[in-house]
């Protein structure tokens, strides 16, 4: 991989060390300057999906926007939707370098700050529904990130653990419902279950049992840690959930935020980017760095990580996103 390419990916908080499959292409995005106010070049990492999001058709579709309603659903009238993936901020066990897996520990102060920063980065990206794991650190990250969102909607957890919990958490005012974003929690998005390693220090374990063995448990696709899940096992439940629950929502026009974990997200990205078992070894997920995908025509196109809310280029990903940002600008303060 060319040095520039590697640096670009690193700058986006995205460590994909694979050097022969990641192609960086420069995409010239020429949008209506009157409508969008930007004409910029956007850099995207393309693996196997062709770029198809920027067509005159989608621009024409997007131009038919209602003026009063600020919901992202009505703003994005093309068939395009966005998927934002976000690993939780630093947890108290990340800080201590302990194998965490399904142990349910909260964020550190640094993790809270990372979630705020992530929220700023996605504050102009539409979010209609939030999916999160059933673990506190992912839920905290989603809730904290949404405090920064310019739509000012309130995330509200749908409690689906029993019929009673579902009924008792219902919102009955239509106005309040419109101003809220449903949060759907699912164990299938949880971190891989780390088995007998949960609670042990990663470095000490590597020193005791051998670096190669521990690296194989942590990063390879097929090797399960003792009594725990391999990435493959984690992938079977996380990707099945993604295909059965998350993809249909994107297809139905919803823009989604998914907050989850290093290995459930590695599984999902492996599926989205069609990585091989070899390639996924080098896929590292940083805490609190959002990654944006555009979903159009049944294809996922990775668009990188939004850098900052002030960065004009962020809004030049697609015309629909630029319009959504423009509508947010018009919202009363
Ligand atoms: O401990 C864990 O649960 C995970 C993520 O922090 O560790 P790893 O770096 O091995 O994926």
Protein architecture, described:
This protein is of the alpha/beta class and 333 residues long. The chain contains 15 helices and 11 strands. The strands form 3 sheets. A 7-stranded mixed β-sheet has the order 6-7-5-8-4-10-11, with helices on both faces. It is globular, with a radius of gyration of 20 Å. Mean pLDDT is 79; it is low at 1-71. The site of 2-phosphoglyceric acid has 9 residues, from helix 13.
Overall spatial form: globular
Q: What is the gyration radius calculated from CA atoms?
A: 20 Å
Kindly report the average pLDDT value: 79
Query: What is the straight-line distance between the termini?
Result: 45 Å
Number of helices: 15
Low-confidence stretches: 1-71
CATH homologous superfamily annotation:
Phosphoglycerate mutase-like
How many strands in all? 11
The H-and-E topology, N to C, reads as HEEHEHHEHHEHEHHEHHHEHHEEEH
Count of discrete structural domains: 1
Strand content: 15-25%
Fraction of residues in H or I helices = 25-40%
- Main beta sheet: 7 strands, mixed
Going across the biggest sheet, name each strand in turn. 6-7-5-8-4-10-11
Which molecules are bound besides the chains? 2-phosphoglyceric acid
Which structural category fits the helices and strands? alpha/beta
Site (Transition state stabilizer): 261
GO molecular function, one term: phosphoglycerate mutase activity
Keywords: Glycolysis, Isomerase
Organism: Asparagus officinalis
């Amino acid at each position: 991989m060319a040095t520039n390419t590697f640096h670009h990916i690193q700058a986006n908080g995205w460590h994909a060390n694979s050097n022969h499959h990641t192609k960086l292409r420069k995409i010239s995005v020429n949008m209506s300057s009157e409508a969008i106010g930007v004409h910029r070049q956007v850099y995207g990492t393309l693996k196997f999906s062709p770029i198809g999001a920027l067509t005159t058709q989608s621009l024409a579709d997007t131009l038919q926007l209602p003026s009063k309603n600020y919901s992202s659903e009505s703003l994005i009238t093309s068939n395009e939707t966005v998927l934002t993936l976000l690993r939780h901020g630093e947890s108290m066990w990340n800080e201590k370098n302990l194998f965490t897996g399904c142990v349910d520990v909260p964020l550190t102060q640094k993790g809270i700050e990372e979630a705020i920063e992530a929220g700023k980065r996605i504050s102009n990206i539409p979010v209609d529904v939030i999916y999160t794991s059933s673990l506190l650190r992912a839920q905290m990250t989603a809730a904290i990130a949404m405090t920064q969102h310019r739509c000012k909607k309130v995330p509200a957890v749908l409690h689906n653990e029993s019929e009673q919990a579902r009924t008792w958490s219902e919102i009955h005012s239509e106005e309040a419902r419109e101003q809220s974003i449903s949060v759907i929690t699912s164990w299938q998005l949880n971190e891989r279950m780390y088995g007998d390693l949960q609670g042990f220090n990663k470095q000490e374990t590597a020193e005791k049992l051998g670096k190669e063995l521990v690296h194989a448990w942590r990063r390879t696709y097929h090797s399960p840690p003792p009594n725990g899940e391999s990435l493959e096992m984690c992938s079977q439940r996380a990707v099945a959930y993604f295909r059965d629950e998350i993809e249909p929502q994107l297809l139905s026009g919803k823009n989604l935020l998914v907050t989850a974990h290093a290995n459930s997200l590695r599984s999902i990205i492996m599926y989205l980017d069609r990585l091989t078992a070899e390639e996924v070894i080098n896929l590292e997920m940083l805490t609190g760095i959002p990654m944006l995908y555009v979903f159009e025509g049944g294809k996922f196109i990775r668009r990188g990580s939004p850098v900052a809310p002030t960065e004009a280029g962020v809004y030049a990903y697609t015309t629909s996103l630029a319009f959504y940002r423009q509508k947010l600008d018009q919202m009363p303060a």
